[in-house]
Fold this sequence. Notes:
Layout: H1 4-12, H2 19-26, H3 33-48, E1 51-61, H4 90-102, E2 107-112, H5 119-135, E3 139-143, H6 149-158, E4 162-164, H7 174-177, H8 183-195, E5 199-201, E6 204-206, H9 212-225, E7 229-234, H10 251-264, E8 269-272, H11 276-280, E9 293-295, H12 307-317, E10 320-321
Parallel strand pairs: 1-2, 1-9, 1-10, 2-3, 3-4, 4-5, 6-7, 7-8, 8-9
Helix pairs in contact: 1-3, 3-10, 4-5, 5-6, 6-8, 9-10
Family: Belongs to the radical SAM superfamily. Biotin synthase family.
Pathway: Cofactor biosynthesis; biotin biosynthesis; biotin from 7,8-diaminononanoate: step 2/2
Enzyme class: transferase
Amino acid sequence: MTDFTILADKALRDEILTHEESLAVLQTPDSRLLELLQAAFTVRERYFGKTVRLQMLLNAKSGACQEDCGYCSQSAISKAPIERYGLLSQDQMVTGARRAAAAKAQRYCIVISGRSPIDRDIADIASAVRSIKQEVPIQICCSLGLLNERQAKDLKAAGVDRINHNLNTSEAYHPEICTTHTFQDRLATIRHARTAGLEICSGGIVGMGESDEDLIDLALALREVKPDSIPINTLHPASGTPMEHCAPLTPQRCLKALCLFRLLHPRTEIRIAGGREHNLRSLQPLALYPADSVFVNGYLTTPGQPAAEVWRMIEDLGFEIQVDAVPTTQGSTAASEPVADLHS
């Protein structure tokens, strides 16, 4: 029988779990789940205490993507009934940043659909980021698809702090979820972002039909990437996508996956991301024992838990929200001002 305290001790010594130990985490009997969570929390508490960082997304360009990612409601092969629109205006992106700061978010992530951003989109986003940095005390992350080195440097120069580009799954399983770009294409974007001096956010999706071995391989591939943060999504099957009939996840499976990533990435920010509300349901608070970060106010095409409810959940756990001081160019109280509908 696996002694989870031994696994926690290994993680605290920066020793990698063996394949057999990693499998044991994912295959933990539900009756021992609390023991596993305690071991993961031992590691989480060492490096992050009881603090939680919040992040908020803006879907700044929706639908009409050329890629065939089977999980995505915005893909070329999706028939999901989602809202479709072009790039939001600079004012709307700035308004989104004010909303994120008002929600106590440490970071604001601007996301657009599509294989790669066109140069005009890069210029418009860069201009919006410059305006945000002048008045809103918040870090900026961008998730814009495949990037070349020049685009990454332009974003860095504008004040973008971090790039999100998920590996999503193992290299072996990647062709099962997408055929229009490769796992290596994703690694190349991460290299370009890092060369430009940007922080890296990269994680994956649990529940797309992958095996335990695929999840372990993903976690190990991310150890090679060494991201600054790892978002762990759990599939929320969207009607009209190829994965709408994937076997449902249990809350216990989601928690075991989070524990695996914590034990293999002891010092890295781990964020509970898309699908949290759908898959964890009433066990959402337990996810903050391995994870130290969470999204508020929804995702790209699905709603999520309002910020005030997340604040209450964190408080009820005896944890606290951490918002690091982020300087602005000019300083502003804009984060507390009323904001308009982003799509108006």
